[in-house]
Amino acid sequence: NPWGPCRRSILNHRSSSCDEGSVTKSKFVKQGADVDLDVKKPVVFTPDRDLFFWRVNRSLDIFRSDKNQKRTKIYPNYHGRVVVLENFSLVLKNVQEPDAGLYTAVLSGAENKLAEYQLHIQAAVSPVKLEVVSLFADSDSCNLTVTCRTDQTHLNATFECRHANCTPDGGGLSNADWSLMAFVFNFSIVCQHSNQVSETQEAMAVRQVCQQHVPKEISIFTWTWIRISLVLGLALALIFALRRRERQATRKPEGCQVLESYNMGDITKDRVRPCTLKLRPAELPKMLEADPMQVTGQNNNPLLAL
To answer: Any transmembrane segments, and where (predicted)?
Structure first.
């Protein structure tokens, strides 16, 4: 506890108090709030103790009264700022930093104090921001580092989590006026900025943060469709390749002709490029029309070159 024996009893109340010794009580008051200064002991007037006083820092008078309240006075610095209640309890309104000090209720001529309060005036703490600065997660564990940031300072804390249960290790910074802490509570990482009179905090659920960074597992249904798609793709590619090969095998080369010939001269004289050459026996008239090749022989009969 950065504030020693004084502890705030209820968060966000306008003030808190604690005992310092048997008489003096410390009160932490939020700036701008009202504070009650109670007198719980009975006020007993006597002839030599005929005036009651509220004083600050044992010298500056705030209020005085006699038994019959005929000599009641609120001193100029506190006009409109104090309300006197039963048994001379006092309400000090709209406290500011200069109002911090030691407040004492006392009877004139008496050494024993009827009430004494040490007032500490604090402003409300600034909002806090919780950010994830690094994270590693898989299906079983999640390690993350967070930053708690205020307008004055910041704090880094690292947590190791398994199934939303995290190590309690966090961290904290504190001084006489404020405390900044990071801790795990109820499956959440909490960043808290507080002092004796106010508190701000921000939290994030561990499971939600970690699941956003876990690689998503592919379901059996998805894997099945992936495999079917691959098989279909390969089958279509194979069919396409086979059909393309068939088309190439049956395609006629550009500029060629199917030629039926009985004479090789028909091929060479017109410089024709045959795709398919069919040779058939020549009939006699055709043979006579062919170019004869004279050879040495009986009766000089022409021979056809096939």
So the answer is: 220-242
